[in-house]
Amino acid sequence: MYGALITAAGIAVKSTAVMASGVEVINIEAKDLVTAAGKLKKEKGMALNFITAYEVKSGYQAAYYFSNIANASAVELKVTVSKSDPTIPSLCDLFASANWQEREAYDMIGLNFDGHPNLTRILNPDNWDGHPLRKDYIGPVDALNQPVNY
Description:
Blueprint: H1 2-8, E1 13-18, E2 24-28, H2 33-44, E3 47-56, E4 59-68, E5 73-81, E6 87-89, H3 98-109, E7 112-114
Parallel strand pairs: 2-5, 6-7
Antiparallel strand pairs: 1-2, 3-4, 4-5
């Protein structure tokens, strides 16, 4: 349903799937994210509910969940970026709610959001070293230079 809207906008869809809940999941290139999200907002009245990010074998993936309460519909857009260039365009100009969520993804996994108005840490101190949700992250050490076990 939404895949056709995205394709009609000239966006190459890498893959689609439908979750058991009926939510369509559409994988697109990061460069097409703003256009696709704009189409969902302007033509389907979709609101951005949340953004989440995680590490996958091929790099990092960000998932954007949109819904329209009036017609009880939802769609998820996914973008995957490489570990060598983890940059995704910001959706802050389209959705104010993207601001803190993009900052969290930056802080915890290290995604850079091109065009974000204030891409700074939000959960960790400004001087924190690394991104805690990365698989290669090594956390703080104790006084004996041993990893802190939580």
